[in-house]
Design a protein that fits this description.
- The chain is α+β, with helices and mostly antiparallel strands.
- It has one domain.
- It has two helices and five strands.
- Strands 1-2-3-4-5 form a five-stranded antiparallel sheet.
- Strand 4 and strand 5 form a beta hairpin.
- It is globular and about 35 Å long.
- The mean pLDDT is 95.
Length: 80
């Protein structure tokens, strides 16, 4: 899956055929977290706190674009 964004070495991915709630996958090395786009919060994961803060700020600043990308890649999911 192509990387949506690189953020200081953190890969931000939005996957096709994914599940709700709308979210991104953020990973660096062996660490990964799923971030709820609408709530701007970690759903599950183990990103170190410094990386998590950067990702949450990125999601907050790019929320509309990330939601659009999620729904474009997952057309069977209804927008809520």
């Amino acid at each position: 899956m192509p990387v949506y964004e690189f953020l200081d070495g953190i890969k931000i991915n939005v996957y096709r055929n994914d599940h709700v709630p709308p979210h991104i996958h953020a990973s660096i090395g062996e660490y990964e977290s799923l971030i709820d786009i609408k709530k701007v919060s970690e759903m599950v994961g183990n990103l170190p706190k410094t990386h998590l803060r950067k990702v949450l700020l990125f999601v907050k600043e790019n929320q509309d674009d990330l939601l659009e990308e999620f729904y474009n890649l997952n057309p069977k999911i209804k927008r809520i």
